[in-house]
Amino acid sequence: MQPVLEVRGLRKEFPGVVALDGVDFRLLPGEVHALMGENGAGKSTLIKVLTGVHPVDGGEVLLAGGPVRITGPAQAQQVGISTVYQEVNLCPNLSVAENVFIGREPRRFGLIDWAAMRRRAAELVRDLDLDIDVGAPLNSYSLAVQQLVAIVRAVDVSAKVLILDEPTSSLDRDEVRQLFTVMRRLRDQGVAILFVSHFLDQIYEICDRMTVLRNGRLEGEYLTSELDRTRLVSRMIGAELAGLDGLGGGKRRERTAPATEPVFLQADGLTRRGAVEPYDLAVRSGEVIGLAGLLGSGRTEAARLLFGADRSDGGTLRIEGAETALRGPRDAIAHGIAFCSENRKTEGLVGELTVRENIVLALQAARGWTRPLSRTAQDGLALRWIRALDIRPANPETPVRNLSGGNQQKVLLARWLITDPKLLILDEPTRGIDIGAKAEIQKLVARLAEDGTAVLFISAELEEVLRLSHRVGVLRDRRMVAQLDNDGELTPERVMAAIASGAEQ
Ligand SMILES: Nc1ncnc2c1ncn2[C@@H]1O[C@H](COP(=O)(O)OP(=O)(O)O)[C@@H](O)[C@H]1O
Ligand SMILES: [Mg+2]
User: Do 265 and 373 fall into the same domain?
Assistant: First the structure.
C-alpha cells in the first residue's frame, strides 16, 4: 500500500541535542498509528517537523509518494496534514458551526451563508456520531468536546493526515471513549491518524501499528498485534530481553532485604497533586530500594517528596517512627536524608567552585551559614573523601568543571556522604559516566547499605537496579504500580512486564 505520508532520513538538531537522527516513518491511509518512545525520544519534534513548526536539517518528506517541502503550519494544512493540540486553538464564544468554518465560511452573493454553514456543520458532526448542537457557543461544551470540534474542523479542512499529540491526557474515561469513536470513524473514512499517548492501554485499544523512537532514532515499526506490551517497553527503554538474560541470570546474587533492621522511613499515601499519585513505601536501614519506570513515570517526583524538595499535599511521612512534615531540604538533611540529584550540572555541582567547596556545600548548608566550617576542617574533609572515592585529579582546589563526568559524580556523592545520611537518595547516579566510575559507584552503594544506610536508587538501567536493589518499586504514569522483592527470581522481564501492565501491588 502506498503510504499517505512518508519521511526518510529525517534529521533535526537543537543546540546540543540531535532530536531526530535519520528517522524513517510511514503512515498508511486508514490506519491509527502510534508514535511511541520515552520522554525526549523525539515524538513531538517529529510532529512539529511534519506540521511545519520546525524546519528540518536533513531528510525528506513525501506525500502520496511525492516529495513536499513543509514550510509552515498553514501550508502543512493545505497539503493535508492537520494537528490538534491539547490546548484547543478555537474561538470559545463563537458557535460550534462558526468554529468549524472560521476563515472558510460558505458564502452566497458575497455574504456568509449562515444556514448552509449550520447545515454542513451539523452533517459533519452527525457523520462522526457526535451529539453536538452546532448553534451553541463552543464554550458551552467541555474541553473534551471542544477538542472534538477542533478535530471535526481539521479533518474537514484537509482530511488526509490527522495528528493527535497526547490528546487524552486530560480526558476522563467517557471522553476518551468518545474520542476513540471519532477516531475509528475517521479511520474508516480513510484518514490516516498519528496518535501519541503515554497510556499503553489506549495504544493497544486503538492503534493498528506503531513506530518506536529511542533517543531520536528509529527503533522499529510494528503491528500492534505482533508486539506485546513487555516487548514494547523493552524497545522503548532499549533493554534487549536476550541481552539482559545473560547479565541478570543465575549468577546474580540474591539480595534479601534486611528484614530485621528498623524501618527508617515510611510513606503512607504520600502524594502531590499533578506530580505523584498516592504511594506507600517503607525503607529499612541497610535496604536498597530501586525505582524503575519509563522516563517521566514519576520516579524523581516520588523521591523529591521524601527530601522535601517538593511539598507533599497528602499522606503522611514517618521518619524513625515519628510523623514528620518536611518543610524543605534542610529539614530532610537534619533528619539524615540526602538527595543526590540527577542533573549534576544544573541542580548539583557549581562548576566554578573547587572540589573542596563543592564537597562541603551540603554540610555547610545543614549547619547554617552563620557557623562556617573552618578552612582546616574543609581541607580535612575534602582530602578524606577525595581519597575514599578516588576522585581525580586528587587536588581539592581544582575547579569542578575541569573534572570528568564520573569524577564530578563522585564529588556530588562525597558532598552527601559527609552529611552521614541515614537515607541516601540517588537519582541516576551513574548516567553518562564511564564504565569504571560506574562500577565504583555501584560498589559504593552496596557497601553503604551493608553499613546500614538505606538507599533509594533511581536508574533507567534495569540491570543495575536489579544488581543493587533488595526491592524494586515500579512506577507508571506517576503511580507506584508494584513493589517487587528481588528474591533471585526477579528478572528484567518481570520488571518490564510490571512497567507495561501496571500489575497492582
Ligand atoms: N525547541 C527545542 N529546543 C531545544 N531542544 C528541544 C526543543 N524541542 C525539543 N528539544 C529536545 O529534543 C529532544 C526530543 O524532544 P521531544 O521531541 O519533545 O520528545 P518527546 O515528545 O518524545 O518527549 C529532547 O532532548 C528535547 O529536550
Ligand atoms: Mg512530546
Answer: no
